[in-house]
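hey all, quick one before standup. I had two proteins in the batch that finished overnight and I want to keep them in one place so we stop losing track of which output belongs to which input. First protein below, input sequence then structure tokens straight from the run.
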Amino acid sequence: MSTRRALAQQLGVVAGFDSPRTDLEQYPTPPEVAASIVHVADTQGDIVDATVLDLGTGTGMLALGTALRGAERVVGVDLDRVALSTARQNERRVGARTTVEWCCGDATNPPLCPSGPTTVLMNPPFGAQDGNEHADREFLAAAASLADVSYSVHNEGSRAFVESFAADNAGEVTHAFAAELDLDRQFPFHESKTHTVDAEVFRIEWAGDD
């Protein structure tokens, strides 16, 4: 197993969005944050021998991180065909041993029915844009229906909401840790060249219908 730092360096070649969409709240997941999430998932036994789904994959950062860590199968789902084209290019840049399947579709209702151990990794929209409120709730619902375990990034202060949602959907938050998303200016309404978003990452075990 490579170190978290080595994984972050490998993911440093992943290109971001050429034309980010505000309606989808397309922000890149920093390689250091992606490496931390994937590293924790790997140490918990949630990567190797599992199908990993990256819901709202964007340009593929989390999917590629798990592919580099040797997941059995990796699928990245996103509505944006342009972002998926960049993700395919990023796959070639990274050179992971596991081939990633890129699926164009609604990440909150993906056309997937995985079998065997399934892990969802995702950095969903926080619901900050008008008309996009509670977007992360829809992503969590998708994870609950598909996964044995999920890792998701949420705005700071979301723990009560995530724990309540998990409890209502046969899930339990087992791990939580803080993350800082250092983001470059990419939308006209951003006032500074860079800004930091304080976030939290949650690992949830889903009981499903078993």
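OK second protein, same deal, sequence then tokens:
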Amino acid sequence: MTRPPILDPQSVPVLGTDAHLSAVPGERLRAEALRLRFGNAAGWEPEIPGDGRLFADRVPAHASVLVPLVARETGPTVLLTRRTDHLRDHAGQISFPGGRAEDSDDDVVHTALREAQEEVGLAAEHVDVIGALPVYTTVTGFIVTPVVALVQPGFTLALDEFEVAEAFEVPLAFLMDPAHHQRHEFEFAGVQRRFLSMPWEGPGADGQVRRYFIWGATAAMLRNLYAFLAA
């Protein structure tokens, strides 16, 4: 069974938020606390393992994304990208740096680091991988491993203009507060479809404040990170 992509997610009704759930305490978002949590990740299952059934008739492919947690003095942030509008998959969406695994990659970490270097110019010398979340399967046929890393400031980004329209940072504390997790639902061909969003208004790389609509697979993986850190 196939299904079309959601072309205008911001128009899909919001059922509500998860404000009844507690935010991850600030002390759990510190670097050493994050290291300890990922050092004890065995046996944990994700809240959202994937998008659901494929809408694309293609052979599944393995991929990795880097979840870069930047150690800013004001608190950790998550480095995200906005994809260019002409791409075949997830055009214009907010994403983590990442992409398809290549035969030359040693493992999922190698894929994530290589893709981050290629897409946004994030040098590996600034990146300290602390663990990974369970794989996430997208409707477009990708089996994605989210590789989580602490990133030290001092890096300079160089965007691949073909794939990345811009890169920006969102406070981790904002994303780890379920009061900002919106639940959307609509019906298509008699089937209920659901997804999460985490809209954020803040400065882009140029300092101008914009509204960034974080949704779909990126929001779901962030929700899994929330559930992991809150457990």
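Flagging for whoever picks this up: The first strand starts at residue 14 and ends at 17. The radius of gyration is 17 Å.
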